[in-house]
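Researcher: Quick one. three chains, 873 residues in total.
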Amino acid sequence: MSLVIENVTKTFPGQRQGLFGRGDSFTALDDVSLRVAKGASFGLVGESGSGKTTLTRCILRLESLTSGRILFDGADVHALASAEMRRLRSRLQIVFQDPYASLDPRMTIHDIVAEPLVIHRDVVKMTERQRTERVAELLLQVGLGTQHLFRYPHEFSGGQRQRIGIARALAVRPEFLILDEPTSALDVSVQAEVLNLLHRLQVELGLTYFFISHDLGVIRYICDDVAVIYRGKLVEQGPVAEIFDRPQNDYTRMLLNAMPDPDPDRSPFRRPAEAGVGA
Amino acid sequence: MALLDIRNLNLAMRSYEGETQILHGIDLVIERGEIWGMVGETGSGKSLTGLSISRLIPTPPGRYLAGSIEFQGTDVLKAAERDMRRLRGRHIGTIFQDPTTNLNPVFRIGTQIVDVALHAGHADPTVLGLSAGASRREFKRAAREKAIEMLDKVGIPKAAERIDDYPHQFSGGMRQRVLIAMAMIGKPDLLIADEPTTALDVSVQAQILRLIHDLVAERNIGVLLITHNLGVVAQICTHVAVMHRGRILESGKVGDVLKRPAHVYTQALLNSVPTVHTKRGELRGLSGLTPESFA
Amino acid sequence: MTTPEPLAIPRRNQSARLENWSRAFYRFRQSWLSMVGLAIVVALIVLALLAPFIVPYPEHVEGVTNTAARFQPPSASAWFGTNALGQDMFSLVLVGSQVSLFSGLAVVFIAVVVGTAVGAIAGYFGGWIDEILMRVTDLLLTIPSLILAMAVAAALGTGVFNMIIAISLTWWPAYARLVRGEVIGKKEEQFIAAAHALGAGWPRILCRHILPNIVSPIIVKASLDMGFAILTVASLGFVGIGVKPPTPEWGTLLSGARSYMPDYWWTAVAPGMAIFLAVLAFNLLGDGLRDVLDPKARR
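Model:
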């Protein structure tokens, strides 16, 4: 499934001031255009307040557009009738940032992962038995054992919960996955495992990824193309290698420089000689 | 005498499951001018070690099984609560992870920071440039001046005007600067920073790290920087201790530990960080490690 | 792609749920006052249920008088003494617990059901629905429950049923406000956004995701309110509306004892202590539950 975003602008009205007045309106997205090819992995980089979350919400139609179009396989998301939108939702899934907040604490893992199957039962048509089997299969697919089926989210570590979130997203066999900072709440070692899992799943299932992150290292690792968003505007986009090796924009360059590298010799705070053994 | 000398620290915590040992024989010595990075993953015990230094772990449920924490020669674990309050306000500064939850939203920035300044001033009037006999009014005036000076120092523009703002009028990075200003106001000898940049954007993170780095250079203090981010450690720390499951697996100079890790766990952590140079499929995680790796 | 071998699916067991409960009880046990509250509440409920079978003088409860034995002080044969009509106070208080506990429970139950429904709908949909429902709620909140109960009693006549309706009418708004606030808070949680993104409709989101997650504050408030409900029922009995005299009820008993103070103190002390104990116990229990169920104490 391909995604095309054409000249999307999103303006939030200003806060009400007094009886008639309104504060200045705020432009969260300013003429954003991008194209995600089927089967590709597209990265969106930006800091907090850059508009990347608003863009995700617009893509999912949780937010209306001020102008512009968002097309999935040529169909305008914001013009779809609600029945068509429901069908689209089953092909388009999202993995959230915070695995601690995105799973309902009062539901078992089985019920959480099976929920999309229940919601889209008119599309997937499964009996309860089949659903349970599908859930078990999904848990294995994301590297969890089926013994966890009837446990609750709080019994799992952050990495395991994110795997559960991924399993839920994969339940209805979507073609397009939005990954909203899926690893930023995880420990690095766990992040490495989840990134490798995501990569494996993409290859195995032929998924298209829209990967949002503030971590350039993560984007570089998982994505083919990247767009950099700053204050609602795309400042630069292109193939990952090109943008990372030859950034054209000052903001992109600043982001790349500010990224802490685990090699002490690359620290801006010391000359290489200081960090060595002889210091 | 070292600034901070932690010897064989063993801590246990009581919970529903019963008592479990959280820290197993932590040894750590911090001298002035050193920035120690304490890296570890969730549940490694790095934050509890930091909290133990200012004795902020309630006992019970915590219980120290063995060991000592000497701060400038005083055993923190045995000191009276009154001495601890003086130590916390004056000699040990602490910065926590989330700048939003550590500022009270209903009080002005100024009120909160002046409060800290007054507290430090009562413990030691010289902090505010006063003698012991100074009047209440002098204290208040000096505390406010000090607050403005510190805000200015941590890079809050127009500090004298913004001191009367409320926390929500500040951005995340500025709030973290306020917390650093608060921690530094008593001219502490040791600064404990628990994930000070985790909630911040990389560009802001770079500024905060610069600030901590400059404070050390200027005041010759010791810093314990608790973080999960090896990149941050590599950038500003002079030394690093790698923690895993309540144990320090390896410690030493940053150049030694990060360039030539002696422990497989450190190596595994380093192999888990995606940098702009990592090729797809190269990240390893901890998959290759077995329990024997930690023996 | 997927493994063809049969999958090992464990039985849906209750062990995880059971462990949650035992974990919660562990936290509850940490405070001995909550344990005392729980013990008294359990004892009161058991006594109320068994009252008809263990009451020493069932005929006194029916209204039989024994003027020869009036105003007997507490003794082995009549633990709480006897009243002006020579009836055994212990029997009356024991059976009186049925009315008090039952009406208290009924009031809280009705208030919770109505309040939750109104609050959930107002909080979830917001806008003008919220506006209308909440203004009605505010309006009812301004009416004092005792006065309304008196008005209802005057209009429809006295009786347990009318009393329960009258009190509930002024009680549900408090639950509506509580639930509305909780729903608005939960609506912003990420797992709700996740459910939206999955394509779930509002009945599913409200009933499957939001309501189960706000049960705790409702239970805590209900438990704290139980004590107050018992007190309100007793107050109505005391002023003479509510339960009709032959049926023993704590408030009515207390009211009857009023003119014989302080010489025949036991006639007042017995029902008074019963009210005191019940209210205290439910408050202690509520406090304990709050410690256990408060989401801030979790994780």
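Chain B has a mean pLDDT of 85.
Researcher: Thanks, that's what I needed.
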